[in-house]
Every structure is written in C-alpha cells, then in structure tokens.
Amino acid sequence: MAAQALLHGFSYNPGVRGASNPVSSKGEFAGIESMMPHTLHFILPKSGQYARHGLGAVVAELETELVALETAKPNTSEKPQRVGGGGGGRQRVKARQKSQSTKEPQHTPRLEWLKQEGIDLTNECILDADELCSRSASGLLKLQQTIWRINRSISRSSSVTEALGVIEEMKAAGIDSANEGTYLALITVCRRQQQGERALSIYEAMKQAGVKPGMLTYNTLISCCHQAKRLEDAFRIKAEMEAAGMRPDVVTYTALMALVVKTGPYRGRSSPAQRLGKALELYKEMLERSIRPDAITFNTLMFAGAQAKLPGKVLDIYRMMIDAGVTANKFTFGILLESAGSGGRLKAALEVFNEMCAAGVAPQTSTYNFLIEACASAPHPNAEKAWALYEEMKTIDNVSPNGQTYNHLITASCKSGDHAGALRAHELMRDSGFSKAVTSSTFNKLIQSASKSEGLDSAFQVYKKMREAGYKPDVITFGTLVSACGQGKDLARALTVSEEMESLGIKRNQVVQHALIGAYGQAGQWQNAIDIFRMMQQSGEEQPTALSYGMIFDACFGKEGTNVFLNTSEPGKLEITPDVM
Known about the structure:
Blueprint (H helix, E strand, L loop, with lengths): L1 H4 L24 H5 L21 H17 L39 H5 L12 H4 L4 H19 L4 H13 L7 H13 L3 H13 L6 H14 L2 H13 L6 H13 L9 H17 L6 H13 L3 H13 L6 H13 L3 H13 L6 H13 L5 H11 L9 H13 L3 H13 L8 H14 L2 H13 L6 H13 L3 H13 L6 H13 L3 H14 L6 H12 L5 E5 L7 E5 L2
C-alpha cells in the first residue's frame, strides 16, 4: 500500500497511479522518448532551452558526510586522468581530433559504463555550450541522450557513494551540468537508502542552482520527509510547491496524510485520535480542491482510525470510500477486519468478510485470524463461532492456521468458559509445530480459565506445567493465581504465591494487591487487608482507585457483621475504625 503511494524510482508501471503515456509532438525527439520511462519526459530540456547548472556544492556537501567511508576504501586503481586544465571545472572534449597523433583519446577510463550504454565520448557526444548553437538537431539529441543516460545511471546507483562516483565521472568527462532529472536521481538514491535528510540537502542545493523542481520531485521529497520524520519540512515543501504555481495532487495529499498518521506528533505532542483528525483535515482540503481521492487515500485514513482504536470511525471511512465510487482492495479489507477484530465488532467483521468475498478478494490466514479475534473480543465471546471459522479456514486453498490462530482460539474459549476447548487449542498448537507461539500470556489465560471452570487445583496444575515447560511467570501470572486463591478462600496458598513472587524479584502491582485484599477479606482478616491498603496509599506509585476502595469495603464489611466507620480526615486518606460487636 505505502509502496504504491510513494512512487518507486523511475520505473514505469501502468498499474501505478501517476504514470502517463503522452503522444510525442517533438518530431526528432520521438525516437528517444519511445525508449524512455514515461515518467522521465521532464528530463529532456525543451528545444533551445538547455541550461547548465553546477553540481559542485551538493557533491562537496555529500562528500564531506561520506569522507570516512571513502578513506576507508583501499586504493586499488589509478585516479582517473582529467582532460586538460583550467579553472572552469568544465572541460571540453573535441568532437573530432584534428591532430593525427597516435595517442589514445583523452577521456576518463572510469566511463566504461557509457560505452556499454552505446555512447562514444570521441564521437560528437559531449559538446561545448556555445558550440551547440551552431550544431544540428542530431548533435543536441546526442547530448540529451547522454544526459539522460547519466541521470538514469545515477538513479540506479546502489548507494549515495556510488551515485557521487557517477557525478565525478560526469565532471571528469567535461559535463559539469545538471538538470532536474540529475537532482531527482540523487534524491531517489537517498530515498532508496533511507537517507531522507540528505535528500533535503540536495533539494536546497537544487534551489540555489536555480533548477525548478517538478511534481514528481516534490512528491518524492515528501516521501523522503517521511523517512526522516520531518513533518514540518513536508508541509513547507507543499507550500513551496503551491508558491511555484503547482497544484498538489492525490499523491501529495496521501503522502502528507501518511506522514501525519505514521510519523508521530504534528507540531507538538498528539494522540492517535488527534493525528486522525489532522489527516481528515487534509482529506477535506483535498475535496475542496476537487482532487479525487483513491484507494490509497482511504486506506491511509482507515489505518489512522485503526491506530486510534476507533473501529466505528474506520467503518465510517469505508462507507465514505464506497460512496465516492472507489473500489476497495485487499489492503482495505485487511485494515477493516483487523480493526473490527481487535474492537470486538464481530457482526461488522463478518459483514466485511462477506463483502470481501463478493469483491473477489481471496481470504488469507490473517483474514481468519481477525475474525476469530473478533469472536474472542466481542462483548459476548463466541467460542463456537471461532471454532467454526477454524474448521472453515482449513478447507481454503493457501490458508492454514498459525500460532496466532491458536492463541485467538484459546482466548475465545477461555472467555466463553470452555476450558476444554482452550486446552484443545493449546494441544493443537503444540502438535502443529507452533510451540514457539506459546508464551507466558498463553499460560496465564489457561490458568484463569482453569480456575473459573474447574477450580483452584486445576489452575495450579496448569501453573506447574508452565514452570516445567520452562516459561517464566510474570506479575499477571501471580495476580491470576492470588485472585483464584481468594475466590477459593485459600489464604495460605495466596500468601505462598505472594512470597514466591517476591523471591523472583517481581514487584506486586495493584492487581496483586487487590487480590491479596480480597483474599484477606475472604478469610476474615480485615486488619491485614487494611495494612495492604495503607501500603498502597503510602507507596506513592499507584494510588488507590475506585476499585481499591470497593475491595477494602468488601473486605471489612464481609465478615460476621463487622461495623466499619469511615472517617475522611484528609483528602486522599482513608481511616477505617472497626467496632466488632
């Protein structure tokens, strides 16, 4: 999804938005256009308007950053010999040698790649700017072909260092010139190497050289801002684009939405819900400019809603997408199902699944995992439906259960009170080769399920298997066991578990402290329950909550008519005075 939005280099793909197929009206230039990627037409200078721009500043800046890498490389070859001398930085290679000397043509040996591209440096390919005025159109065409091939070679470089090497070869051959395509090629290499900040430096050098960026350059720079997490710069580039008389398109706005949603705060600290709001503002601005959103735009907005954990909003955006006449794709349905699954929207998830199948989008393993998760997260967990979906997914081609599938089945079964089903899912997980997907969290669910369905002894049996299998218990494990002991009125076991927890260096959290208060209350030891409560008050880490007060009230009121007088002497302090009749 993101790859489509951020334009991969110069490759032409009719399935990617932004590609065009204009009919050439340039006569002699039609031949070269036909062999170029269509997105590169802007690289050809207009007839009679070829301008030269020095690359010295940007090369110097980037070479400074790469000097450590360059000096670390062994010097295994001779330095390329520059032609002539002079201080202009641009050397001229004569089109024809007037001299009958037997010397080899003076061009840089490193330019072998140009020969492979079909360019002969000694045959009227590199011309002086003044000489161009008196040359035929075929000479200009050869120069344009050379510049285009150089730009293409730069864009295909595997590193910034390699791209700078091509620039040096270009200068050594007497071509100290750059057009927009040259800068865009360097920017593309930086983006490919995840060096967005360098791309922004090249953009500044491009402006200083007086080279005007085009739409593709601006959009590529915004994607580089995404890599560099430079949201302010992205919006600055959009403003500069508009100031230059260019109208942002759907790619521009979608890239900005992705920046806002995925790159964190926008102009300060913001929550996922606030970032969703900013993305929707950009969407509104888009519509006001009569720019038609596409599937990637809506997918980005839905992703923002999912990040904000607002499944209802995600469904609303999906309806907006359908109303706009935009066709949903597999990414759309994936976001919808994941959001509905984690949000417990089982009915909505099943409806989306039916629409996905009707649209001809093949389900994947993740599709069924989201549906089973929805069964587990629903307000009324449905283990029966979860198991039915499990059986169904096994009949679909190229779809098979994985570790996540079984973990969701365990959760659905535990929440539905089906301990046997939870044990079955755990056994299937192990037998299917997904033992690595079993975690302490898996056992915590099984312990809780066992304590509710089969009692305290069953819960400790699961805990014993957990330790024997080499899994380390965590604070949730002990909190679950202490709670089970309290419900089973087994204070001795609860205290033993608490001691084991402390011996492992695991600090009691509020859940464990609540469980201990409950266990003391069930045993009629309200004094000890009050001690735990006062420790919570004095710890300064987790202050008592409404649940904490409810637990201590239950502990004190729940044994043989104990009278409790609550006196609030100071805010935040609870004083309990028992009066046993």
